[in-house]
Amino acid sequence: MGCTRGLLTRCLCGITGLFYPQYGIVLDAGSSHTNLYVYEWPAEKENDTGVVHQVEVCKVEGLGISGYSQDTEKAGLSLQRCMKRAQEVVPEHQHRETPVYLGATAGMRLLSIADRVLSAVEKTLRSSPFNFQGARVISGQEEGAYGWITINYLLGNFKQPGWLNFLPHLRSSRGTSGALDLGGASTQITFVPDQEPIESQENSLHFRLYGKNYKVYTHSFLCYGKDQALRLKLASDLQASNGSLLDPCFHPGYLRIMNISDLYTNPCIANGEQQLPFTQLHLQGNGDYQRCRMTIQKIFNTSHCPYSSCSFNGIFLPPLQGEFGVSLDARYTWREVSGASQACDNHVEQQASKVFVLLQVKAEFPKIKEKYLSEYCFSGTYILSLLENGYGFTMEKWQSIQFLGKIGSSDAGWTLGYMLNLTNMIPAEKPPTRPLSHASYYFLLVLSSSSLSL
Ligand SMILES: Nc1ccn([C@@H]2O[C@H](COP(=O)(O)OP(=O)(O)O)[C@@H](O)[C@H]2O)c(=O)n1
Ligand SMILES: [Ca+2]
């Protein structure tokens, strides 16, 4: 029964709706795969007693939507199973009022025909019984911002009134936690620096949340997610090869043949192809952690910095400040490599070296897909290089990194922050103790950059 049919039905739904939990759905269309999240919160959100939390994650089978550029219809069809799952999770009488958002990240930022893929995806989402609110490619800055909001919302760092505070030990002692997101095609770093003002305008965000102002630094490195970073590395190594590569970032015995044209199919690698006298790359692993780090190092250009301090490629990075939560995807690499969710310096180094041994014993990892297993050596080493050499997490700073999977029942990715924003669930001002009769005080998210459209 839908809530729009008939006056009596509408009245009943209006009254009972006060007591039903509410739902929102966000699809995270990443470069490598899509996840659908269902969030739930108590209906009475205006007095802020409730907490928005994740009740379901459905992993879409197949490729990320940007992988269907040759057959865009399939991008839409691939989502159907998870949309059906969402229909089971959200009670039927609430389908029509439940908003659905799709946000696509770096894979789609790199795709010239992203609009065509989005149209196919929209077709599927519109045909669902939910209240479809739009499918779009979010900017790297938004991805960083929403990831930061998610982590701090879930940790209770905004000191939201009525917060359940079920994880007091993770709550940041210094106000807010920084957010690190390590994806397949891009990586984001977002935190509140001590240093003010933030030297570069495009890295600067301003928020007013629960009556407090936050000046936040963020940067998204397109092409420096681990899948694209591997391409950057291979393209760089190839320049000095004859088409055969002995690669220290793959385990001994590993063989892969790649078409050079496939390697050069995206904007991350510019114009190198024409100069190469061969059409295929023959890659042979000869795992060596130290040498792997050296080859990875080449993709971080640290030769110039127009600011007081930089990460790499001339991008401003203020001194690191406070604790950092590493979101979702790095967890995969981390969990299997180290078996621990907490990182610390020496331990990290040893574990990364161990990858090479572990990779030879596939039987130890029966559940891991071949693709991920074969790239563990590169992935683990790349993440270490990025954090240490790219962002400057030195030995003592490692203590400040927490590898997060879930906080409570919710994944620590950008999607929750995205939904909180779009459903006006984060107030700019502290809500008064007595509920207001209207929702006008909700939400004022002021972002200084013009490129960020919220
Ligand atoms: N079991 C898994 C699942 C994902 N992953 C990796 O996690 C990353 C997820 O990135 P993503 O698809 O969200 O890409 P972005 O669009 O965020 O850059 C990819 O590099 C996947 O290969 C993994 O290493 N192991
Ligand atoms: Ca992602």
From TrEMBL:
Binding sites annotated in the UniProt record for ATP: G184, A185, S186, T187, Q188
Superkingdom assignment: Eukaryota
Stored Pfam families: GDA1_CD39
Active site: E143
Listed GO MF terms: apyrase activity; ATP binding; GDP phosphatase activity; ribonucleoside triphosphate phosphatase activity; UDP phosphatase activity
Needed co-factor(s): Mg(2+); Ca(2+)
Family: Belongs to the GDA1/CD39 NTPase family.
Top enzyme category: hydrolase
Catalytic activity, EC: 3.6.1.5
Keyword GTP-binding part of the UniProt annotation: no
Gene name of this polypeptide: ENTPD1
Keywords tagged on the record: ATP-binding, Calcium, Disulfide bond, Glycoprotein, Hydrolase, Magnesium, Membrane, Nucleotide-binding, Transmembrane, Transmembrane helix
Cellular localization per UniProt: Membrane, Caveola; Membrane
Function recorded in the entry: Catalyzes the hydrolysis of both di- and triphosphate nucleotides (NDPs and NTPs) and hydrolyze NTPs to nucleotide monophosphates (NMPs) in two distinct successive phosphate-releasing steps, with NDPs as intermediates and participates in the regulation of extracellular levels of nucleotides. By hydrolyzing proinflammatory ATP and platelet-activating ADP to AMP, it blocks platelet aggregation and supports blood flow.
GO biological process: nucleoside diphosphate catabolic process
Residue intervals passing through the bilayer: none
A GO CC term attached to the entry: caveola
Its membrane topology: Multi-pass membrane protein
Protein name as annotated: Ectonucleoside triphosphate diphosphohydrolase 1
Subunit structure: Homodimer; disulfide-linked.
Entry keyword annotation includes Coiled coil: no
